[in-house]
Design brief:
The complex is a heterodimer of chains A (484) and B (353). Chain A has 484 residues and is α+β, with helices and mostly antiparallel strands. Chain A has 17 helices and 19 strands. In chain A, strand 5 and strand 6 form a beta hairpin. With 353 residues, chain B is α+β, with helices and mostly antiparallel strands. The two termini of chain B are 27 Å apart. The chains are: A alpha+beta (484), B alpha+beta (353).
């Protein structure tokens, strides 16, 4: 179908302002949070109701037009990168909180609702929605489902998949599936899990029922400085080994500490090789106990400086620095590239040493922030896009970090998704058999491959071409790291 | 060992002979019988803990590992399977536990089996040896096939290894009991679940509500003051009897229905004794002849959930709640992709798959 015919068909049931096809109107949709990848779609649609989404899908299905779903566009892996011959389906206008049931502790929301807006709406009942990705002011819950987003509290409170109950999903043919329920268990296969993190490849989510949980009575933070990253890593293991599941456990390396301190003056120890933030939440008695124990563990683990902000303002000031790591990177470098790999925590020191070696090899600085509790590492590679070849070098550097994550038994993405960005590393994470099963799963939902084509799962052909760079899990279970 | 499994699967696929994947055999009573004549595929020989690092909170074990051995290993480091899987017999295996997808009393507070599955190694219907997920807490590379295996009753593949998130055992656990009727208990359980209280399990039976508190001693004692009631002397014995269904309530030959519904749903207007767990989200019902399966399933659906005929299915009623045609199409398509010859436990979950 020609673009003109498609626009005409879409305008037969959508209002004129809900169908964008002029280049300047579509420009804001050409990329998501990963702005290095840009592509204009054939047309952008902004439906306001599920019925309209069904009509759009039926039209696309009938005309075999690719469909790329988009929430708030804050994703960092290019998952919402448009398809040149396709429709970009923005779900931003499906933005209603349909109902909150405080007694049953759940909320029914549309996909375009912002993550934080759910917690704000639940706050009067003493409840909130737990997953808190750092973009929570802007990111949408539909996007969170597509990426299985986490946040700084997920060791204790789980990811998106642990915090949703039910989805209304439209298949590419426009058929509606009710997945899950208001109950904890449901009948048949766990399609709720399969759908979560599927990056818009299996269906379009039009309604989500999320769990709400009680706000902890109190939260308190221990901030500990270490003169050695290895000691900080051991401190994390010691806390968990003592039977404590902290609400949040975050680490920053030296270069990050300096970048943030220059920017915010949060009072961080500039001599530290790493700073660990460890938060306890719960009932007042429980928190008081736990903080005492965490303090002692930090001491025993060789912390050079430990502080426990006594009031809420002090606690938030400490966190502000951690949360400002990205803007701080933006301040000391024209551009930065945020990576997202997971590793077994015990390999942290090895991996940081490996990153340092790569940093020198590529002549690019790299800041490291780490969700230490759950092993999710976010290296920020600092570069200058105006220097010819520097982006390419950065991407290569980033790719090597991810391959290192696989070698130590981790994964190429903890929470940002594969999207367009990590499609090559999927060839390293998985073997042909698994990739073939992923394509089969997609085909079970979307036989003609119209939903977000070309993302998340590489073709076997692509992997074959990438060839010998593969490091398969299992084959190198105990890798030799000295080469870093 | 895996070679032998692969060979058996390839032969079965070639002849389209169903295979009954068999662990400890403790949950044969659960689910529908396999359609047609099948051969046994004994999964218990592939056993043992592959990797366990307490400070990583991750355990990887072969599917044939007995739960009792796995929990003993965890116990040495003060850790546990937080979803409290029912064993229904000492021979219960990890693979059977994941395939059945059943969780125990802590489910409402801590999560279900599927919430703790991080990765699986499995054989599909062509005997291919596949790894999904991994050994880390956060992993969004590829579709979440490992969680899909939880509760699939072995219809999608044979589990070889499973990686699970494990958690520290709470320092203190106590149980409070109080007299309350069903309506009041539902109201209370849900009110409390909305407050920051260390409640790890609830059960209402015979006009009494049992509430388990878990956590630091100080937190548990503070909550005890807020909740009131009388402290039960044999806390763990009681919860064990609920988890393993050795409690008096379950000693009946009547059909035992398991209704997973919205926790705030009013008391079910059905005759027959009931026992509630999960803040009201799980209702066990001893059925009798006056109630048809359709009636019970309609009531469950209206209450936001599903009804499973868990035990004592004398009249061969389909065990699991029927799916609508759209959902069944997806199930059929997935089954076809994972197990194209339809050899793994056919009919165990639904006749179509």
């Amino acid at each position: 179908m020609s673009p003109q015919e498609l626009v005409k068909s879409l305008r037969s049931f959508l209002s004129p302002e809900a169908v964008l096809y002029e280049t300047e109107d579509m420009k804001p949709y050409e990329c998501d949070g990963l702005s290095a990848y840009r592509q204009l779609p054939m047309v952008v649609v902004l439906p306001q109701t599920e019925a309209q989404v069904i009509q759009i899908l039926q039209l696309c299905h009938a005309t075999q037009t690719p469909v790329v779903a988009r929430g708030a566009g804050t994703g960092l892996s290019g998952g919402a990168l448009p398809h040149a011959q396709g429709v970009l389906l923005s779900l931003a206008k499906l933005n209603q909180i349909i109902a909150i049931d405080p007694l049953a502790r759940m909320a029914r929301v549309q996909p375009g609702v912002r993550n934080l807006a759910i917690s704000e709406a639940a706050a009067p009942y003493g409840l909130y929605y737990a997953p808190d990705p750092s973009s929570q002011i802007a990111c949408s819950i539909g996007g969170n489902v597509a990426e299985n987003s986490g946040g700084v509290h997920c060791l204790k409170y789980g990811l998106t998949v642990h915090n949703i109950l039910r989805l209304r999903v439209l298949t590419i043919s426009g058929e509606c599936l009710e997945i899950g329920g208001e109950s904890l268990d449901s009948a048949g296969y766990d399609l709720l899990a399969l759908m979560t993190g599927s990056e818009g490849m299996l269906g379009i989510v039009t309604e989500i029922t999320v769990k709400l949980i009680p706000k902890p009575e109190k939260a308190q933070l221990v901030m500990a400085a270490f003169d050695d990253v290895l000691k900080a890593g051991n401190a994390v293991a010691n806390v968990i080994g003592a039977g404590i599941i902290p609400a949040g456990m975050e680490m920053m390396d030296k270069i990050t500490i300096h970048a943030v301190e220059d920017f915010l003056h949060a009072g961080y120890d500039l001599d530290a090789a790493a700073i660990l933030f460890c938060e306890s939440d719960g009932g007042a008695e429980e928190v008081a106990d736990e903080i005492k124990r965490i303090y002692a563990i930090m001491q025993q683990s060789g912390a050079t400086k430990i502080s426990t902000p006594q009031d809420e303002a002090g606690r938030l000031k400490c966190w502000a620095g951690r949360k400002a790591a990205f803007p701080a990177a933006g301040r000391i470098s024209p551009d930065y590239y945020c990576m997202d790999g997971t590793i077994p925590r015990k390999r942290l020191a090895d991996v940081l040493r490996g990153i340092e070696a790569l940093s020198q090899e590529y002549g690019l600085r790299c800041m490291n922030v780490f969700h230490a509790g759950d092993g999710n590492l976010h290296p920020l590679i600092l570069y200058d896009a105006n220097q010819p070849g520097e982006l390419e070098k950065t991407e290569e550097f980033g790719g090597k970090i991810l391959e290192m994550c696989i070698r130590v038994g981790g994964a190429i993405t903890g929470e940002h998704g594969v999207g367009m960005e990590k499609i090559n590393q999927m060839c390293a994470q998985f073997r042909t058999g698994e990739l073939a099963m992923f394509h089969a799963v997609k085909a079970a939902f979307d036989p003609s491959g119209l939903l977000n084509p070309g993302k998340a799962v590489p073709t076997l052909h692509r992997c074959a071409e990438l060839g010998a760079m593969h490091v398969h899990r299992g084959e190198e279970k105990f890798p030799e790291l000295p080469r870093f | 060992m895996i070679d032998q499994y692969q060979a058996a699967i390839r032969i079965a696929a070639e002849h389209k002979t169903p295979l009954q994947i068999c662990g400890g055999g403790t949950k044969y009573f659960y689910g529908n019988p396999i359609t047609g004549r099948s051969n046994l595929l004994d999964a218990t020989a592939y056993r043992g803990i592959v990797d366990y690092e307490p400070t990583e909170l991750v355990m990887t074990a072969r599917a044939g590992t007995r739960l009792v051995d796995l929990e003993a290993a965890l116990d040495r480091y003060g850790q546990m399977l937080a979803f409290e899987p029912p064993y229904f017999g000492a021979a219960a295996t990890l693979g059977g536990c994941v395939a059945a997808g059943l969780s125990g009393p802590r489910r409402a507070a801590a999560g279900a089996v599927r919430d703790f599955v991080l990765g699986v190694r499995m054989l599909n219907g062509q005997g291919e040896d596949l790894n999904f997920g991994g050994q880390v807490m956060k992993n969004v590379a590829g579709y979440d096939v490992s969680r899909l295996m939880a509760g699939a009753m072995g219809t999608l593949g044979m589990l070889l290894e499973v990686s699970l998130k494990v958690l520290p055992k709470p320092a203190t656990e106590i149980t409070l009991r109080m007299q309350l009727d069903e309506t009041a208990a539902i109201e209370k359980m849900n009110r409390w679940a909305g407050k920051p209280l260390p409640i790890s399990a609830t059960c209402h039976v015979n006009g009494e509500l049992f509430v388990r508190l878990s956590g630091a001693e100080s937190a548990v004692r503070a909550a005890q003051v807020k909740l009131g009631g009388e402290e039960l002397s044999e806390s763990s014995v009681f919860w064990q009897s609920i988890r393993e269904q050795t409690h008096d309530f379950f000693q009946s030959a009547k059909p035992l229905w398991r209704l997973s519904i919205k926790s705030t749903a009013s008391p079910l207007l059905l005759p027959g004794k009931q026992l509630m767990e999960w803040n009201g989200g799980l209702r066990w019902l001893l059925g009798d002849e006056s109630m048809s399966a359709e009636t019970i399933r309609k009531i469950a659906k209206d209450a936001g959930g599903y009804a499973t005929l868990f035990r004592n299915n004398e009249s061969c009623i389909p065990v699991f709640h029927p799916l609508d045609s759209g959902m069944m199409n997806v199930h059929r398509a997935l089954k076809e992709k994972f197990d194209p010859s339809g050899i793994f436990n056919p009919g165990r979950l639904y006749p179509e798959i």
